[in-house]
Amino acid sequence: MESPNLSLAKKLNKVAIVVSILVLALVGIMRRVKISLPEGVDLGMLPGFHAILNSLTAVLLILALYFIRKKEVARHRKTIYIAIGTSALFLLSYVAYHITTPETIFGDLNGDGVVDQAEMALVGSGKRAFYLVLLLSHVILAAVSFPLILFTFIRGFTWQVEKHRRMARWVYWLWLYVAITGPICYFMLKPYYS
């Protein structure tokens, strides 16, 4: 007979697969599909909120690592639960913002959707290239790490300690990288928000 934890883990893994596919599909279409907001509603404050959520997630992840290294499993678990919560809130807010708001482009000072030669001269091609590489790595690793974070969490939640440890040793660093680079990208892009 299968243990209740393994049975729960199998069910949660199926949920995680479905959620991952739906989230990645939604993120893939949110820049192509735009939903109009009611008159007077502006979500322009959300990018700053996203940076706060990502920063908070990074701090929580560092605390979770500290707690587990001190063998404080209960505190580690609680901290990870909160980090999952801040990440989930970030994801919902991020999708709401990007499905309703035109894209902001690094270097586009006049907000016309194009970085012309004059704007490129002002921003510098090296700084723009650095931003784009950072953003690309952030986006790719966010997409790759999302399902891995869920599977790592499920293994910890269902007390599959060895499987959880094996995954967490490298998934943790992906998640932390994404949580740290998100606010960096925000602060680099901030001068171009309208």
Number of domains: 1
| Count of β-strands | 0
CATH topology: Four Helix Bundle (Hemerythrin (Met), subunit A)
Strand content: under 5%
Helical segment tally? 6
Distance between the termini: 60 Å
What is the CATH architecture term?
Up-down Bundle
Given this structure, which CATH class is correct? Answer: Mainly Alpha
Average pLDDT, to the nearest integer?
A: 93
Described by strand count, sense and barrel closure, the largest sheet is: none
List the defining traits of the structure above.
single chain, 194 residues, mainly alpha, Four Helix Bundle (Hemerythrin (Met), subunit A), elongated
Written description of the protein model:
The chain is an all-alpha fold. The longest helix has 33 residues, at 125-157. The model has no long low-confidence stretch (mean pLDDT 93). It has one domain (4-36, 44-192): Four Helix Bundle (Hemerythrin (Met), subunit A), CATH 1.20.120. It is built from six helices and no strands.
